[in-house]
Amino acid sequence: MRLLSLIPATFIVVLNCGAAVAQPVPSSADYWMPGCREAAALVHFSNDGEPSDLVKIGFCVGIINGISYTGVPSGLCVPVGVTAQQAVGVVVQYIDGQAITRTDEDFRLLAFEALHAVWPCKN
Nearest-CA neighbor of 77 among 89, 64, 68, 90? Predict the structure, then answer.
């Protein structure tokens, strides 16, 4: 008798499994690009957005600045005077401009690739 009562419950659980929505992987460009797009478009920072948006903006700017300053050994030479907003704009334009969407790839690798495409070191 107890087994018969589990059948409807199991059926409901199975049907509800399809209702889950896939979330972007936290290391992917898909996850961080909304914050990067905002950072590239901002004239000044404000606290008007959601806290998670501000975290994504800060992460984006921080990662891109870090890559910009440490990229020389890897062949990346960002010119002196380039602002963080300009560098973020380069990354956003590059990632959004890919013919095939690559937003499931690691954001940090795509950001380096974008900056290197625009500012490679001259040998």
Answer: 68
CATH 1.10.890 fits 23-118, yes or no: yes
Rounded Cα distance, 21 and 47, in Å = 29
Distance (Å, rounded) from C-alpha 76 to C-alpha 95? 17
Q: What's the pTM?
A: 0.68
Domain spans of the chain, in order of start:
23-118
Alpha carbon separation from 78 to 14, 33, 55 (Å, rounded): 53, 21, 25
pLDDT single digits (tens) 45-90? 555 656 567 888 888 999 999 999 888 888 999 999 999 889 999 9
CA atoms of 40 and 88, how far apart (whole Å): 5
Is the separation of the CB atoms in 53 and 34 below 8 Å? yes
pLDDT of residue 54: 81
